[in-house]
């Protein structure tokens, strides 16, 4: 072979080698990009964000001991103290956790407590403020416990299918939101109301990857028309004083368990304390015309005024001849007090589930007075008004005291107002003396027709209950 031919051959070999190397690099780059894309998807959609002070096995003490002095044996009293401090830190209340430990006698002599405090301070320093106007607000109605009874084809099936969520869907939604880093906050974490009624923005600081949201539930009254349709009967206190639901089974027996939003969230936070910012949970928007929380606490059950009793109420009183209004009210108040102790809040949903602007100011005043007289004594005062029907008392322009509805509601002590707007991720309007917030309905209608609007919260296909009839009826 001549030198010239050899030179050509060598050039061809080098060309092929360069081509092979280039193809290998391109393939490696594609694999690297695919890996990064998969990691990004995992981080944003599937990763379970771990709070360093949240229990990984349900035992706060195991976490605290491994973080400080694994071989040190400590007293039961010290374990209890650390568990309390760790829970506060898990719920992002680092100042309270630090104050708890620093306030104990002999803190300066305890290296263990100093180490814990230093870890809280380090985590706190890594937190960042979250923009209040980017906080989303989601809400549910009463959850369906028994799909077969709720979706049995009667005249109420379509309504349940549109605006209700099943327990399995709810559990999936909450788990997915937790996995994506969502944390429940109160609207009172977002704004502060001064004694003169002025409103100012507060600061919510969270670790990287955490996103605050507000949770609310409408109509937690367990209306008469829902009897026998696969919903909980009422909220009750179990033998340990925990808030649960009673449920009437097909055979008439009564079961006690987690059958609606409140006890389901309580149990979830018990296992995942870092889902509740400073221990704050959701807000329950209550009407009053058939009582609250499943208890018949409205005045008509006491006065039995024939002109005001509905057919449902008359039937209830006939079937319960020994009904004791005072006892019923006391039991409802005990449940409400237990809920507030666990981080729940209450809002007015108007006494009669009314659209204020459609009723006129006179009826609004009568409605508000009834809520104040018959609901407030049970659940306590509130400054939050969550409008029924997703209504509002204005368009999207700021409230003004020239608006007679706002002027009246503000005079009655309401500072925070909520409508419904599922078209955007967050809608918050803060004026000099009020806050407005749009809410997103997580129900059958929204999941069926607009799953794309929920992608930031959860995957609808994963949450969807296959027992739900389709198509969901149009509204």
Q: What oligomeric state do these chains adopt?
A: single chain
Q: Report the biggest beta sheet as strand number plus sense, adding barrel if it closes.
A: 9 strands, mixed
Supply the CATH class of the largest domain: Alpha Beta
User: What fraction strand?
Assistant: 5-15%
What do these coordinates show?
The protein is an alpha/beta fold. It folds into three domains: 47 residues; 67 residues, no CATH class; 332 residues, Glycoside hydrolase/deacetylase (TIM Barrel, Alpha-Beta Barrel). Helices cover 42% and strands 14% of the residues. It contains 19 helices and 16 strands. The strands form four sheets. Strands 2, 3, 7, 11, 12, 13, 14, 15 and 16 form a nine-stranded mixed β-sheet that branches. It has a three-stranded antiparallel β-sheet with strand order 8-9-10. The chain has a two-stranded antiparallel ribbon with strand order 1-6. The longest helix has 44 residues. The radius of gyration is 28 Å and the shape is globular.
Layout of helices and strands:
Layout: H1 3-46, H2 60-67, H3 76-90, H4 94-102, H5 111-125, E1 128-130, E2 136-140, H6 147-150, H7 157-163, H8 167-179, E3 182-184, H9 187-190, E4 191-193, E5 199-201, E6 204-206, E7 211-218, E8 234-237, E9 243-248, E10 254-257, H10 261-271, E11 283-286, H11 300-303, H12 311-319, H13 325-341, E12 345-348, H14 356-359, H15 361-374, H16 376-379, E13 384-386, H17 404-411, E14 416-420, E15 428-430, E16 435-441, H18 444-449, H19 460-463
Parallel strand pairs: 2-7, 2-16, 3-7, 7-11, 11-12, 13-14, 14-16
Antiparallel strand pairs: 1-6, 4-5, 8-9, 9-10, 15-16
